[in-house]
Specification:
Elements (H helix, E strand, L loop, with lengths): L2 H4 L12 H7 L11 E5 L2 E4 L4 E4 L2 H4 L8 H13 L10 H12 L5 E5 L2 H18 L5 E7 L8 H6 L3 H4 L9 E4 L4 H11 L4 E8 L2 E2 L5 E2 L2 H14 L2 E5 L23 E4 L10 E5 L19 H16 L2 H22 L4 E7 L2 E6 L7 H10 L2 E2 L1 E2 L4 E4 L7 H19 L1
Parallel strand pairs: 3-15, 5-6, 5-7, 7-10, 10-11
Antiparallel strand pairs: 1-2, 2-3, 4-12, 8-9, 11-12, 13-14, 14-17, 16-17
Helix pairs in contact: 4-11, 5-11, 12-14
């Protein structure tokens, strides 16, 4: 099915948009670019003025199947005609089907559903605290997280997030967190030793297999394997935040597969529903400690969101999308490395897994990642920053060889404009 079939040109730019009117009524909690997106199909977007963009943001690693994918359209259409929401007072067949797929395709034994990555991480934090009290007999549990991490925007998850800029003016923060450098096993060992005093002790270590917002920094295999050994020896829970890197984005279903270790608990959201809001916390039986009435979500695991996620899961399998992720990811990284060789005065490193990749800029060069993003947008390519000096490339997992080449050509054009 072609893009033209999915989005007739006559339907583009059909609704006038007024930025000033928008800003009058919507809170200014986002630093928005001056573009209003109206339509999407595949890896393409159109704004309200009819301009076309190649989408290498995908709703920030969320639109797994791109825009207007036939499988997702069919699934949500059928489900909304059947039933879209019912309370978790009752069994929800779609929820059970989705949980079964996740369990069959991961190291998890049980699944809890919610609406977002932050909620999934909140659930993991609560589970870790109860596990600390009821299994480890820790009165004042500490959860270790990494510097430059990102775990969400709720009070607990911004506290877990090891970046002061997200915490500013929101104190008092939630107690019970401590931070260590990422990929530094000695720092982990020191923290466990230093915090084991009186009623305090480390109960869990919560990390991203690859840091997304922290600059697209992959985890070190040796580090994570040693970490698993430490947790096995001490009883500390190992929690992975897979909100951004999970559901195929790394080239594997889950990011932990890139590291050769299994977490005790891990979380997902973003790509799970392909753009329909859904989050999940997965756990092994050994730490499945939450009981009836101790955690809940009104909308979590509703039939509509689960139907969308089921469609995403099945399409990943049927269309061999993981192979595409690996091939297109390698193509993208190689192309970006070629640009780094051509423009060494601007680009210092290219890194990532599958279709989550970062291009790090040199410091003190007179421009930053936002400048690259803005210039690329003018040329018809949507990119995202990951910090001030890293440009992030997270296209839909269905991106084609031609589309990756087009994106690389535009980035090359942007770099040439900057050089001149």
């Amino acid at each position: 099915m072609s893009i033209e079939t999915l989005v007739p040109q006559s339907e583009l730019s059909s609704n006038p948009f007024n930025k000033e009117s928008f800003d009058e009524v919507v809170m200014s909690t986002y630093g928005r670019f001056p573009v209003a997106i109206e339509k999407g199909a595949g890896c393409r977007l159109w704004d309200t003025e009819g301009k076309e963009y190649l989408d290498f943001v995908a709703g920030i690693a969320t639109c797994t199947l791109g825009h207007a994918h036939p499988a997702l359209i069919e699934a949500v259409t059928k489900q909304i005609q059947k039933i879209h929401h019912v309370s978790n007072f009752y069994y929800i067949p779609e929820q059970g089907e989705l949980a079964r797929w996740i369990v069959n395709n991961s190291c998890a034994d049980k699944v809890f559903f919610c609406n977002s990555g932050a909620e999934a991480n909140e659930a993991a934090i609560k589970l870790a605290r109860k596990y600390a009290h009821t299994v480890l007999n820790i009165d004042k549990p500490i959860i270790l997280t990494a510097n430059s991490s990102f775990h969400g925007r709720t009070l607990a998850t911004i506290t877990a997030t090891g970046q002061a800029k997200y915490q500013k003016n929101f104190n008092p923060l939630v107690p019970g967190f401590s931070y260590v450098p990422y990929n530094d096993i000695k720092a982990i060992e020191a923290a466990i030793s230093d915090l084991d005093e009186g009623d305090y002790a480390v109960a869990a270590i919560m990390l991203e297999p690859l840091q997304g917002e922290g600059g697209v920094r992959p985890g070190d295999i040796e580090y994570f394997q040693k970490l698993r050994k430490i947790c096995d020896e001490t009883g500390i829970l190992l929690i992975f935040d897979e909100v951004q890197v999970g559901m195929g984005r790394s080239g594997k279903v889950w990011g932990y597969e890139e590291l050769g270790v299994e977490p005790d608990v891990f979380t997902s959201a973003k790509g799970l529903g392909g753009g329909i809001p859904i989050g999940a916390m997965m756990t092994k039986k050994s730490c499945d400690v939450l009981r009836s009435g101790e955690h809940a979500s009104t909308f979590g695991g509703n039939p509509f969101a689960c139907a969308a996620a089921i469609a995403v899961c099945h399409t990943i399998e049927k269309e061999n999308i993981l192979e595409n992720v690996e091939k297109r990811g390698e193509q993208l990284r190689q192309g970006l490395r070629n640009l780094a060789t051509k423009y060494p005065e601007y680009i210092t490193e290219v890194r990532g897994w599958g279709l989550i990749n970062g291009m790090e800029l040199q410091a003190d060069i007179g421009f930053n990642a936002i400048d690259i993003v803005k210039t690329a947008m003018n040329e018809g390519l949507m990119l995202a920053p990951a910090g001030t000096q890293v440009v992030r490339f997270v296209p839909p997992l269905i991106v084609t060889e031609v589309e990756v080449d087009t994106a690389l050509q535009i980035v090359g054009k942007v770099m040439e404009q900057i050089r001149s």
